[in-house]
Amino acid sequence: MPKMTEYNLRSAVLSDAAPLTELVAAAIPGYPFVGVYDSEQVAQSIRNGEYRILAEMPEIGVVATAVLGTESVMSEIKRVVVHPKMRKNGLASQMTIRLAGEAKQLGHIPWADVRADQIGMQRAALAAGLSPVCLEPGKHVVYDHLYLNFGSKRPARETMIHMTSLPVDLDKLASHLKAWPITLRNRLLTELYSSLKPQRYQEMVAEKALPSAIEVNHRISQRINQEVKNLIKEESADFCQIKFQGHQLLIIKPDASGFFTINHDLNFPELIKIAKRVGLQIITCYVDTKQINLLDSLDTAGFIPAMIRPWQEEGSEPVWQVGWQYRLNDYGSCQHQVFLDPNVENMLLNQFSLLQLSVEN
Length: 361
What we know:
361 residues, 2 domains, seven-stranded mixed beta sheet, Acyl_CoA_acyltransferase, acyltransferase activity, transferring groups other than amino-acyl groups, GNAT_dom, N-acetyltransferase domain-containing protein
């Protein structure tokens, strides 16, 4: 196993595009955004100022990479990739620690959504000072999962772990939730616990719903063209943003998912109908816990309070948000298994228990 002193961490440059795509192809097959396997697209991202670092070794070349999102004060550490032969060397931790430090130097707040089936990435986020807050069930798709370590590869919806450098003030969260209807409060607590044990995976259902990133992208693109004719939309190869009565639905086509933003007008069923018809499996909507006026509309529409996170916008104080999920089109049968680092699992269970006690007292 190579020594850590043999690695060189540096910023990526244009000439790294080809070796970076080779690394990603070896390390994360089945990623929904196929542009990561295209050296021209990777080069364009670097040219556009993508904040990417890489690790290289003499006589071997690029063996790891990671990206820091710097578009807002909440800077996401993402696309942490280590070559399979170079794992368990601490590389993921070293890159995550570095990017967390650089985010703070920029005056930003580092955070990460790490996969709930990759213990190494969870430990890397812990090493960088990030704390696990909750699981985010079925949030994204990976099309080439190694299932139960038996060598069988299959598509599945991936549960993520939200990890943050913001204070995790459970007392403040509990004080907000006490103002909620008891049924919704209890549903949130139930969902937090149940996310640790996803619904049973059904291979035939998942393979039909999620055959490949390219096919899912094409299928959803076709349905968007059929269904979204008179609404305002902005579309690219992987994304489509639809606007209706001030609401916004961002569709991530190869991921069969969407993110929903609500305005003060609570009439938004039309966008949910569109999401169903185009083939999305999940819509996520983050709402501040103090926005009590939205609870009834979200609940009536079929959204489920499933996730929690502290969040901060530029120039504002941190707030608690609840992630509401609308699940559809065989979502439940497509969920991947969860493998948690024992420390991460204990931290989550302890937080859920403390939150429950605070809310009930």
